[in-house]
């Protein structure tokens, strides 16, 4: 049975002076998210390149979230425009621009220090060191912040958001405990993969401890399917990510026009010959130019045959080559007005093109939400994401730096968990950590009452151990990049930044 989109877990009184329509309730949600300290914290969390090493104009998680919000709103407004052929479709599935904005503003709240590296490291530590079966996942952490960790006057836990906004935040609307048998033998949703043992959820929007809340918010929605408002936010995130990372790397001067041109021209000139090479040859260090793009083409056909198309892929490669390789990258960024204008023109042109390319998805495509990018634009986004992934994220110097940051997080998690379980000293852990452990412990105890579908119910003897583990992860994930460094160094006995840690920890 579906629930009222504007309903909240804890009913709130409405004053006679308040406009009581559901739209105003969604705007209240948006304000609660934007005034949250977790939202402010995103200004000090790395997107891809840390600002101290690349300058203040590089995107952080906050500026990324603001831009995703703008793109999301533009898409929602276009879909519901009175003259749009998609208006009836959008309204039938629920498409409020303020819900979309709220979800976009909240979608990255759970990202830990140091970008996606931090997410991978915390997941490994949560599973292997702390014994948390559902590990760490940025999307699930965002949902946990909204529903359990942040505070408002309206409820004892969380921001007490409406069901529509909580549903719109859930990009991967399931927990890690997936029923593989229910999916059959066909394609699995994005965020899942088939393994020898069945189906594994690589991405998910709620930990087991928060599963009951997600089930309640999504009551009446088809299983495993995003809401329309969530699909819009998801696409906007992809659009902003694909464009703004290129923007950052161009500004930072680390995107070499020669290297990118060599790869793109290699594929355009010898694509037919490259198709005859086996996967191992393509991946070799001595592979000919264009091999990495050919690898991308094959990956798209393996993972998304519902939309992958050779002609569309070729058009996308040629289009990106013309506008990025032979256009923007042909003149290095030098901080001049001319280079700023060229970058602004490139960014605005692509954002406008991509957000106007959103269309209703074909029915029964498990790999897509209710809306998607059209075939050409979908391939263009994948090609743009390839540029920064292949030419930046795989660089040895970036990986070397990330290995150092992974040790920072490992020291913080192991040091804090040891402290929190030290019978002689655990009462002196930071007050915030103590409270997060209690919140998590209470949550695991409540699992025995709510018993959400397929989520393992902990034995009473394990409740405290799990509470400490989840509380430590909640604590470390809530730090800024600089705070994580300071905490790690203090736990390691280094006094250099002792007073930088601050009482807010």
Could you give a short description of this structure?
The protein is mostly helical. Helices cover 57% and strands 3% of the residues. The longest helix is centred in the middle third of the chain and has 25 residues, at 228-252.
| Uncertain residue segments | none
Instruction: Sketch the topology as an H/E string, one letter per element.
Output: HHHHHHHHHEEHHHHHHHEEHHHHH
Tell me, briefly, the overall form.
globular
Task: Tell me about the largest β-sheet.
Answer: 2 strands, antiparallel
Number of strands: 4
Count of alpha and pi helical runs: 21
What Rg, in angstroms, do the CA atoms define?
Answer: 23 Å
Task: Determine the strand fraction and express it as a percent band.
Answer: under 5%
Distance between the termini: 42 Å
What is the percent of helical residues?
Answer: 55-70%
